[in-house]
C-alpha cells in the first residue's frame, strides 16, 4: 500500500494511527511525504504513535512500514507500473526519455510510459509545505488532480495552469463560503467555491469536486457552498461566452459536486 501525505497538519495525519491497516503487519505500507523544517514522514508517524499520547508505540508496528521523502515536489515525479514497481525520478530525467521506455524495475527492465501511472507534484499555497498531486493514468489517459489546502490567489500562476490543465477530475479545497472567507478566514490557507470554479474553467477541467469541508459545517452549509459554486459557474461561463461566443465551456453545473471527505473502508 502506498500512502501520499499532502502535509503534516493533524487533520491530515491523525487518521493513520487509528486505522486498522496500521496494525496488520502482513500488509506492507510505504508512506510518502515532504520534508518540512527537517521533519519527514517517519518522524510524523513516530511522534503521533508515542506513549503517553498513544497506547501503541510506533516501534511495535514499524516493521511493515517504509518511508520515502519528497524534498522538492516540483522537481520530481513518481512512476508506478503494475509489474515494474515504483520509482521516484527527477522531472528533467523523466522528460529526457521523450517517449522512450522508462527504467522502472529493479532489474533494469524498461516500460512504456503509456503503461504507467505518473504522479506529478506541485507545492500548494498553504501555511506549511504542502503537496498537490496530479495522477496521470497511462492506459486510459485519464487525469485526476488533488489540490487541497490551497488558498485563493488573484490569478492562476503559469506553472499551476500547466499542472492542472485538462484534468478529468479536479478535487479542490473549498472550505469556506466567499462571505466567511472575506470576513473571518482569509490567510488560513483554504479556498472558496467561486475561486475553485474560476480555476477549473481556466484550466479546462471536466469535473470539479469540492473538498476539505470545514469541520464545523453542517450538511446544509456544505450544500450552500455547492450552490455557490454552481452559481459562480453560470456567471463566469456567461462572461466567457459574451467575450467569445464560440468558446467551449468544459465544466457544466452538473459536473460540480461536493466530495465526501471521510469514508469508511470495510475490508
UniProtKB/TrEMBL annotation:
UniProt xrefs under InterPro entries: RibonucZ/Hydroxyglut_hydro
Q: Which domain of life is it from?
A: Bacteria
Q: SUPFAM superfamilies given for it?
A: Metallo-hydrolase/oxidoreductase
Name of the protein in its database record: Uncharacterized protein
Amino acid at each position: 500500500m502506498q500512502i501520499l501525505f499532502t502535509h503534516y497538519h493533524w487533520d491530515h495525519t491523525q487518521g493513520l494511527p487509528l486505522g486498522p491497516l496500521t496494525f496488520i503487519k502482513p500488509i506492507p505500507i510505504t508512506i510518502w511525504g515532504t520534508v518540512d523544517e527537517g521533519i519527514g514522514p517517519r518522524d510524523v508517524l513516530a511522534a503521533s504513535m508515542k506513549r503517553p499520547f498513544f497506547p501503541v508505540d510506533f516501534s511495535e508496528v514499524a516493521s511493515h512500514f517504509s518511508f520515502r521523502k519528497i524534498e522538492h515536489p516540483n522537481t520530481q515525479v513518481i512512476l508506478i507500473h503494475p509489474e515494474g514497481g515504483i520509482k521516484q525520478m527527477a522531472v528533467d530525467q523523466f522528460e529526457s526519455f521523450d517517449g522512450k521506455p522508462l527504467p522502472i524495475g529493479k532489474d533494469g527492465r524498461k516500460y512504456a510510459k503509456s503503461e504507467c501511472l505518473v504522479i506529478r507534484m506541485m507545492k500548494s499555497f498553504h501555511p506549511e509545505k504542502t503537496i498537490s498531486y496530479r495522477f496521470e493514468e497511462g492506459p486510459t489517459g485519464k487525469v485526476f488532480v488533488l489540490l487541497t489546502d490551497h488558498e485563493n490567489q488573484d490569478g492562476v500562476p503559469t506553472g499551476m495552469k500547466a499542472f492542472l490543465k485538462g484534468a478529468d477530475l479536479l478535487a479542490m479545497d473549498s472550505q469556506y463560503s466567499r462571505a466567511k472567507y472575506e470576513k473571518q478566514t482569509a490567510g488560513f490557507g483554504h479556498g472558496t467555491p467561486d475561486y475553485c470554479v474560476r480555476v477549473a474553467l481556466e484550466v479546462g477541467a471536466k469535473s470539479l469536486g469540492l473538498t476539505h469541508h470545514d469541520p464545523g459545517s453542517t450538511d446544509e452549509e456544505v450544500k450552500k457552498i455547492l450552490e455557490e459554486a454552481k452559481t459562480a459557474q453560470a456567471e463566469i461561463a456567461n462572461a466567457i461566452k459574451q467575450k467569445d461566443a464560440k468558446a467551449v465551456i468544459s465544466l457544466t453545473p452538473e459536473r460540480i459536486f461536493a466530495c465526501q471527505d471521510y469514508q469508511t473502508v470495510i475490508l
